[in-house]
Amino acid sequence: TTPIMNSSEGWDKTAGDYDSQAAAFTSKFAIPLFNKATKSAPVSTALMIDIAGGTGSFSLSVARQGFTHILATDFSPKMVEFLAAHVKEENLSNIEPKVMDGQNLQVCDNTFDYAFNLFGLFCFPDIQRGGTY
After folding, report:
1. Could you tell me which residue, 48 or 131, shows the higher pLDDT?
2. pLDDT of 34 higher than 80
3. How many helices (H) and strands (E) does the chain have?
């Protein structure tokens, strides 16, 4: 059997709790990580993908800083639903929420200038596959 947290259904069941509790913790790491990764590169026209972004703590933090375009992905439809609600509430046009498996990204190679995975990688059943973009 598949462990509950290795399935989109498992994360769907916890999306509300994750959004109200864990997202506040993970968002504290967003801007320091982003600034460190992008300190010597222009970001005004760059494209970014947030892989396994959950309810969007990383994407939302970066979008508020004015990052131009973010594809925010998660394999849990409920997580993406929460993210989409936050995007709408904050009237952010620079985030595109999309349901997508971080171990099987449906994007073309070399599309993005930056690829981030804040805390999702350790949740992947196959970390090697999930860490390849």
Report:
1. 48
2. yes
3. 6, 4
